[in-house]
Design a protein that fits this description.
mainly alpha; MetI-like fold; ABC transporter permease; cell membrane; membrane; transport; 66% helix; MetI-like_sf
């Protein structure tokens, strides 16, 4: 039963690793990978001098940091709030509403956001009802793009991020809460002293994965929301690699960028794992 999955992994995950040699070659679509001349570290030297690449790095780190701060804590808080609901039908309704955005593509959500953020959209309508006279198209404002990208991604994924926490909390022995209640512990004290410590391993695992993905941005979201006006703040590493590699045909340079980002992600993964291991009595969650 496992064999088909292993075959797919070999074909789509391991064999393509050979293509990383493009990062050290000058590849052209008119030749093969084997026939392309070696250029050593030339592509990486070009990266260090490319101001547009560093601009995409700045945007990626900025957006990902905002997402990390909000999207890491919000699912924990939301999961605890849902878990503490006593009325089962209402709990299912809340879960469904929070999960729903995850199943909608960025084409749909992006179209909704572009409409809402337009000069005559819902956001300006609400602001004008509150007394603000605003007729700006917010999607054309480069200065506000980081907030739009971060908050819209949180809106889409926060509910889905509660699943692991909900599953972990469902396995907590209810006698812990009963004993704490008999000792006079308030609900907040029970959450702080029982719920959160019991979720520590999954929280640490999500932190490691979140930090390691700091340089991996949402390409679908960027391609939908980016336009010529907000591009200086919207261009991220993944969209830059897509544009340089597929649009401009510079596959060697795009591969070098992707390889460099992958190495940095592994370094961040290792460092975060070591830190969480120290905080968890030298026990790793990986």
């Amino acid at each position: 039963m496992v064999l088909p999955g292993i075959i797919c992994m070999i074909i789509f995950n391991f064999i393509p690793i050979y293509g990383l040699t493009l990062a050290f070659k000058s590849y052209s679509v008119t030749s093969t990978i084997q026939d392309s001349p070696w250029v050593g570290m030339q592509n990486f030297q070009t990266i260090l001098q490319d101001k547009y690449f560093w601009q995409s790095v700045q945007n990626t780190v900025g957006i990902s940091t905002i997402k990390l701060v909000i999207e890491f804590f919000l699912p924990i808080i939301l999961a605890i709030m849902i878990f503490e609901l006593n009325w089962a039908p209402f709990k299912k309704v809340v879960q469904t509403i929070t999960y729903l955005p995850h199943f909608l593509s960025w084409i749909i959500l992006g179209g909704m956001l572009i409409t809402w953020m337009s000069s005559n959209g819902m956001l300006n309508g609400l602001l004008n009802m509150l007394g603000f006279n605003i007729h700006t198209n917010h999607m054309l404002n480069a200065g506000g793009y980081w907030s739009i990208a971060s908050l819209s991604d949180v809106w889409k994924e926060a509910g889905w991020g509660t699943i692991l926490y909900m599953a972990t909390m469902s396995k907590i022995d209810p006698t812990y809460y009963e004993a704490a209640e008999m000792d006079g512990a308030s609900k907040l004290r029970q959450i702080w002293s029982i719920t959160i410590p019991e979720m520590s391993n999954i929280i640490a695992l999500n932190l490691i994965l979140s930090v390691s993905g700091l340089f991996n941005s949402n390409l679908d979201q960027t391609l939908v929301l980016m336009n010529s006006q907000n591009q200086p703040k919207a261009e991220v590493i993944n969209s830059y690699v897509y544009r340089v590699g597929l649009t401009q045909g510079d596959f060697s340079y795009a591969t070098a960028v992707g390889l460099g980002v992958g190495i940095i992600s592994v370094v961040l993964l290792t460092i975060t794992n070591l830190v969480t291991k120290k905080l968890n009595d030298n026990q790793s969650v990986l």
